[in-house]
Amino acid sequence: MYTANTGSRASVRKVTVPEIRARKSSGPKIAMVTAYDYTMACLVEASGVDMILVGDSLGMVVQGLTNTIPVTLDEICYHGRAVMRGVGRAHVVGDMPFMSYQASPIQAVESAGKMMKEGCFESVKLEGGEVFAEHVHRIVRAGIPVVGHVGLTPQSVHALGGFKVQGRGDDAAEQVVRDARALEAAGAFCIVLEAIPPDVAERVTRELTVPTIGIGAGAGCDGQVLVCTDLLGLSRGPTPKFAKRCAELGDAAIGAFKQYVNEVRAGAFPDAEHSYKPNHGEVEDEKLAASGEGCVVVPFMR
Ligand code: KIV
Predict the structure, then answer these.
(1) CA neighbours closer than 13 Å in the CB half-sphere of residue 205
(2) Predicted confidence (pLDDT) per residue in 195-207, tens digit
(3) Which of the residues 134, 194, 248, 293 is marked catalytic?
(4) Which of 170, 227, 160, 159 lies closest to 197, judged by CA?
């Protein structure tokens, strides 16, 4: 297990970049999920997932923004450190936020370097195709693995006129293929395909030698990624068509909060089980402390 910025590890075998590349030909398909904090990272890691993405979707999921544009490099690094403390095996990718790389290849290398050093990431992801091939190339040359991201690129929400399916029509489909090819040539080790028709994703997947990871891109990709809160049914309000809810933990959480509120109001909580023993005097208190009863939590667990 990593501790932030120290690089210390327990003996868990990491999923490596070469292994992810190799899954293109040898399978099984790659499973990727987002996480933004320690608790979620522990849960996702326990599932045996291959890759965890600290996505800039945290702007919407964690911060309640309407898009990902305001997310900063420092925020991504903060969440990266928290996630990394909960992960042993999965490969952890950090999303490069809007305007942390677009200005120039040099800016891209500097930002990616900061993410590796301060966010403890093992690779970075950036949105955009042909136009950013040189940026990807320079980051890869610095020894930092890069995940590409084409199709719907949410940081361009205003330019695209909304969160819309991309790659429809021959010209648009060709552009998606060209973008993916350019990223592969620049050295990206896998490429996220977001919100494109399944036949276009299948073509990209067939033509590339690196794995594709789909989100709203059909079943023909080499892997899939979902936002953790969508997958768990924690997201409230409308979610995209592709956001499969594998559980309804949001409803379960509301039920639990309601139970707590009712018990507090009725004076039923805390009961004896959740209260400390009454004060019996100094000697007995010392005995209780020695037995661990006096500790609020088990000390030095982490
Ligand atoms: O930010 C994010 O979570 C993403 C995934 C949806 C691919 O980019």
Answers:
(1) 26
(2) 999 999 999 999 9
(3) 194
(4) 170
